[in-house]
Amino acid sequence: MIVIHPGDQLWEYIAGGGGYGDPLDRDPAAVFADVLDGKVSPALAIMAFGVVLTPDGTAVDDVKTKESRERRRAERGSVASTPRLSWVLAQGPPGRGEAIGLPPAARRT
Predict the structure, then answer these.
(1) Residue partners of 59: CB distance under 8 A and separation at least 6
(2) What is the reported pTM?
(3) Residue 4 near residue 10, CB atoms below 8 Å
(4) Does residue 108 contact residue 90 with C-beta atoms inside 8 Å?
(5) Tell me: the pLDDT tens digits for 37-75?
């Protein structure tokens, strides 16, 4: 437990969050920077972002990253067609489903 007294300040820095957009569109250099900072493991870089590092882990392998991302896109299809994502987006404020192009049946009214 941390005791806070009047006038004290508590600063907390956390990594992560829901993010924005397709993880496979994230700049590989930014993913690599997160690996170097210890925010993302090399395994998660591949699984979540499709970013493949060189065998020694000192750089992004651009060719393998491109292949990885293309393969993952082919396997999963469009992000907008993912049922879970469509469901989450449909739960937002009224009109949001229309703004992102969800079919009428999936929109929140």
Answers:
(1) 32, 53
(2) 0.58
(3) yes
(4) yes
(5) 998 899 999 999 999 999 999 999 999 999 999 999 988
